[in-house]
Structures are given as structure tokens and as C-alpha cells.
Amino acid sequence: MTDAIFASPADAGRRLAGVRYLADDAIATTVFLAQALGKPLLVEGPAGVGKTELAKAVAAATGAELIRLQCYEGLDEARALYEFNYKKQLLAIQAAPADRAWQETHDDIFSEEFLLERPLLAAIRRSDPTVLLIDEADKADVEVEGMLLEVLSDFQVTIPELGTVAAVRRPFVLITSNAARELSEALKRRCLYLHLGYPAPDRERDIVLAQVPGIEAALAEQLVRTVGTLRDLEIKKAPSIAETVDWARTLLALGLDDLDEAAVGRTLGVVLKHVSDQERAAKELGLSG
Amino acid sequence: MASLVDRHTGFVAELRRAGLPVSVAEGLDAVRAVRAVDLLDRESLRAAYAATVVKRPQHRATFDTLFDLWFPAAVGDGAGAARDPERPARTVDDDGRPVPAALDPRVQRRREELADLLLSGDDAGLRRFARLAVAEYGRTPGQESWFSSGVLSALSPETLMARLLEAVLTGRERGGMAERVARRTFRDRIARFSGLVAGEVRRRIAEDTGVERTARIAVRPPLERLDFAGATRAEMEALRREVYPLARKLASRLVQRQRHGRRGRLDFRRTVRASLASGGVPLTTHHRPRRPHRPELVVLCDASDSVSAFAHFTLLLTFALREQFSKVRAFAFIDATDEITKYFAPGADVTGAMTRLAAEADLVWITGRSNYGHAFKVFDDRYRDAVTPRTSLLILGDARSNYGELSLPIVRSMVDRARHAYWLNPEPRAQWDTGDSAASRYGELLPMYECRNLTQLTAFIEELA
């Protein structure tokens, strides 16, 4: 029911690349399918592999507006869906002329004017192309998932005082999760699923080259392989793509053109942010000092 | 078209049989997805299936194995495997037996090719080469079936490592970071080659004997149903990665439970302040946060050889728990008991902790074989104060005491003192009480759970929280 925005998986890949998001075949195909089947796309994977970036890239590539719902513990309907503006309602009651019938006032204060729309409702009511990003769904409580189910299966919201609001135009929905908590089977069943891992060395090199203009291909290659080795170590926080890119920028800023032990030792803090991780890396990679 | 539908239903049925929970709705989604992509593009087809039927990363390996069987990349020798039937792949000596691989010039030429491919990292080339190599070396004359061992022993890719390193590290000193990084890269590529060969062998076997039968032999159970004791090294690593989320889950469940209780006391000041905005009507009430109740955990873990795979795993669980709770005390025992909490200080390095633990902890009293009775006695003597009415006590072990004493009264008193007590036993329930197992005698004192895979461990964590 979404308008066909991508013609084929290859087209999706090309247009994402156009906004500097390098998608591999699996990503391009899955994004294309989510759009073609009109289903929400659940993207899971470790922090920093570009899950949120993917939503932004889809929005940029299709000229859609990005509406973002950041999940957190204690997120509720009033923050995610809609709420009535109590204060304004109270004001309206107080300001109402004395001779006005209560029923009239009542109808009045539960109208559109007093409705505060939150991301989910906003995404459904928009008539222009929309990408709805539900970020870090695993952070929210289980109850929120129930609410999402309702919204995502029918793309409609029922507001008791106003009636049912159905989507004019289905938004492209992307849900991200770090898998801190297993999402419910029911939610997973309704979504397409994409697991984003750390990229293959070639793809990561291309990402570095695209994001950091001026870096030598050979250095990027060396950098990506080193980051890969770091990710293999049993450390607490494996370096993300963003950190690889940061590292590349750091090396460029320092004017280093070879990644030897000394250079790694000096700049390790850019990619590893725990002391124990740094110690472990120093030991495993044979860095001196 | 009918054959495609059959293929689809057969594939989905086999996924279910292998333990993937594919619902009917997901199967239908898969059909819709498959119709939307170009069927001739095999990777698109794979992605379409993966997006609709695989909803957990642990299931991906099983899925890929089955996908390769059901939607094979090639038929017969496959396109691109330009094989010359006139020339056998191995040189034959005067007696008609193949020359040893190391002396066979043809094998050596193939090894050169493989080395070049590994060096350049050309994946498409490697895939073609794997197909060719299986055709040549996967079946020795007289053999009925295909084996990857033939290919791997003829080409022995592991022995190419020195040469590959030599090629990249020209002039640079050895043993440093550059070598480690290069070594890892080549190790990955060699592993990739072995994987390709294994896949190709499976494909050929499937062609000979049928897809379903091959699938039944080829597919390992998904990670969450994999036996801790029977896990390969790679699987153990994967299991290890699963432990952290579990520990987090346990921690968050314990916290959630208290949050779902009553809200804290009314915060009068904040409520009144907030009511100013609504003309003095307190529309929203504010509450003080509840003081968190910190659950305490005491873990007592059998570290003997008979449960070593399990012990390794549970120690990791302990480690993960240690990072989630402020108060976890861990003890390990074989025939004596020692506190191991200190090796698991927050921020400590996990592999280092395991080595230090093995070297330094005082676990062995005389025999070095599990003696539950003595271990409990030592625990009771030295760490009696560890178990308090606020403690959840977790005992991990197979309850095989080598016919030694059991110290049941001591265990009973520990259980009585603790708030909760649980015993996780890595042995299949059917083997409990056979031989020297004292499972049910301990089981009378505290609930004992069979715990030999992630599913059971997860179930237990739900129970505990």
C-alpha cells in the first residue's frame, strides 16, 4: 500500500548509495521487500552497525520525512501515541461562558484542537511520504509492544473521543533493537527481519572511503582489518562502524599514513572505551607500553 | 510453478523440523516476498527468505545450510567448473596408485591457485575453486559418497599460512601487530574456503541421495537447543556471546518486578509545584522513587573435569551476573571450595580471570575428583555468613560425588537459611540417580532443574525472576 518507491533491490541499493549509505545485497533486498510488501522492518544487531542510519538513509533516499520514536523504559501511550492537552482543556472550561451547556463544552474539549499528537499518530496521519523510526524498541517495556502491534498491523489508531484514525498513506516503518531483551514473537511475526552484523571488510573499507574523503585506500584497508581483529578479541564493547570512521579521521588529522604499533598505541582510545579492553588489545596485538 | 510451490513447502517444513519456529503467516509472507524479487538472483532469493522466516540471528546458520540444499547454486558439476574428464586430478604412479599430494605436481598447481585466491580475497573465485576442488578431490575412485576430507587433505589450506604471511609481510618484522592482523584475515578466508567445500559436498550428496535425507544429517541443532557438553569450540564462543544478554535479562527482570509493585510514596512538593500549571488542580501526581531492593546471589559451582564444558559456561554466567548485580559472591569447588568472586571484579578481563582461576584458586583438597560432601562442608566452615535470608543460592553441578559423602544436613541448613535455592544439573534427567549420581537426594532438599542448553537456562531465569 505504500507507493512503490524502490523499483527493485538493485534500485534500493543504488538510491541508498546515493545518500552515502552503502548497503550490501541483503540490506538492499530487505529494504525493498519491506516497502514492496508494506510491512514493518525490524533491524537487530550490535550497537553502531548503522541501524538508525539505515532509517535516515531510507528517508533521505526517498525524500520522505523521518519521524522518530525513541523508546525508553517507562515510555507510555501518552508519549508514543497521543494525549489530550489537559492544561488547555482546563483553560477552555474556565473560559467557557457561564450559560454554555456542559455537553457542548465536553464535546468541544475533546476535539482535534486539544489533541497532542505523538510520533505514532503523527506518522499515521501524514499524507506525505513518511519514514517512521521506532528506535531501540528493546528498551521499552513489554506493554509498549502491545500498543505497537495494534498500530503496525492495521496502521490505525482508535481514540475513544474522536474515533478511529486510519493511515492515509502507509509509512515505511523501521524498528531497531540491540536485542537487550527478546522482542515478542507476535511483534517479530508481523515484521520483516534483518540482522545487521559488522560489515565485511570490503564493505567497511568502502564506508570509510565514502565517509572520510582524503584517506588512502591502503590505509583504510589496514585500518578496517585492524578493527576486525579488535572485534575478534573478547572485549566488552567491540568497535562500531562509527568508531572505525572516527579512527580514520583521527589518523588523517594526525597525518599518519601507516598504522603501525606506535600509531595504534597512541590512538587506541578512539576505538576502545574501556580500560580493560585497551589493556587486552595491547596485550593481544603486542603493542608496547 | 507447481514444483516451486513444492520446493517452498518442503523447505519451510524442513526449517520447522530443524527447530526454526516458522508460522503459517511467515510462510505466506515468504511466498509474497519471493514473488517480489528476481528468482534468478539467488542472493535476493536468500535475502527474501531470510527476512521473512528467520527472526533470530542464532537460526541463521541452520537456515543457510538448508537454503543451500533446497536452492542449490549449481547442478551436477556446475557451470564454470571446466573439468577435463580425460585427465584425472591426481597423478598416478606405476602401480596405479595416486602419488602423495605433496609430490603431485597437479595438486601443487592447484595449491598455487588456492594460495593466490586466498591472498587476493576474491570470494567469487574462491567459490568457483571450491566447486572445482570438490569435483576433483571430493571422491576418490571406488568411494560412493563425497567427502570434504579428501579435498582438505589434498590441498591442506592451513599449511599455506606461512607462505601467505610471507607474501604480505615482505620486509616487515614478524610477530608484531601486522602479522596478527594478517593471520586473522587469512584464517577467516581459509575457514571460508572450508565452509564452501563443506557446502559443495553437501550439495553433491543431496543430489545423489535426496535433499531431505542430507538435511537431516547436515544440520546441527540451533544454538539455543545445543548441548553445552557437545558444543564445538566455535559454538562455545557463540554460546558465550549469548550469556551476556541472558544475564542482563535476569537483572532487568529482577528490577522490573520491583518496579511493577506499588509506586513510591507521594512526592508532595513536586505534585503541588506541578499543579500550579493547571490552576492548583493536581492533575499529575509525582512519587518518590522506590528504594531499590538489591537481590543477592551466591553461586556455588562444580569446576571438575566431568562438567568442565558446563562449568566453563556457568562461570561465564557468573561473570556476567557479577557485572549486573552489586552483590554476587561466587564459589567454585572440586573436592574443596574456594571463593572466586575476586577474579570476577567488575571490569576484569574474562579470559584472564578464567586462567587465573584455574591456576590460583584452592579447589583441590586430595583427589581432584568431585566430592560434594567435603566441598559443602568446607563451604559451611569457611563461608557460613555468605548465605543469609536475603540470598538466592544457586548450585551448579551434576551431583556426582564419586560415591563420597553427601553432607545432606549441611545442604539442608544452607537451603533453610537462604531466601531461594536452586540447583542446575547439566545431565539429562534420564541419567539422574544412575551410578554415583545423588541427584534426587539433593533434589529433595532444593528444586533441581535440568539445564543443558540455552532454552533450559532461559526458562530457569524466567523462573528465578
Automatic annotation (TrEMBL), chain A:
GO terms for molecular function: ATP binding; ATP hydrolysis activity. Residues 37-202 form the AAA+ ATPase domain. It comes from the Bacteria. Coiled coil: none annotated. InterPro entries: AAA+_ATPase (IPR003593), ATPase_dyneun-rel_AAA (IPR011704), CbbQ/NirQ/NorQ/GpvN (IPR050764), P-loop_NTPase (IPR027417). PANTHER family: MAGNESIUM-CHELATASE SUBUNIT CHLD, MOXR FAMILY PROTEIN. This is MoxR-like ATPase.
Automatic annotation (TrEMBL), chain B:
Residues 83-97 have a biased composition (Basic and acidic residues). Signal peptide: none annotated. Residues 80-105 are annotated as: Disordered. Pfam families: VWA_CoxE. This is VWA domain-containing protein.
